[in-house]
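@channel sequence for tomorrow's demo:
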Amino acid sequence: MSLINKLNKSRSVILNIVEKRGFEIKKYSNFTLQELDTMISSTSTKNTNAIGPLDMVFENDNKLIVKFIINQKLRITNLTNLIQDIISTHLGENDTLILITNDKLNNDTFDEFLETVYQKSKIFIQIFWIETVMRDITQHTLVPKHEIVSVEEKETLLEKYNLTTYSQLPIILKKDPVAKFYGGKNGDVFKVTRPSETA
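structure tokens (generated this afternoon):
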């Protein structure tokens, strides 16, 4: 599949992700393939920390930036520098950065770096390989409805089920595709609603 078609499919899924996290997406909806092609051609490979034509910035109480890294080879050092540049120029505490890469990234050390950034600056960073965001997994018939519960609901949950700690609940990994989709962080609790009690 061509890059332009991958971008077209992935952008609609990314917009769904962003909307489910409470941001207004109208500004970035309904781009044509021709407009996307123009954006790809005008994306600079030199000033990578700048917000380019393909990238998206959403704001409500917090900021969420979606940055596409498609025209350059992915190297851990470059990616680390890019993240630090974006944080220093565009993001603050409780903001989110989502990076969409054309190359697949598998590196546990890099995951530790992202966790360290979150612990130090409370900036949440997620990296999605473009191939994994070309389909909306939450629309699949076998994926039940997931919701991140509020702090108050978490406290009620402990009382209701007579629990002393959240680790007594079933665990969902933050790398789980649905947890990634909703931006699940360590300590978040998901409410999973299945279509029937026996499902």
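heads up for whoever presents: The first strand starts at residue 56 and ends at 59.
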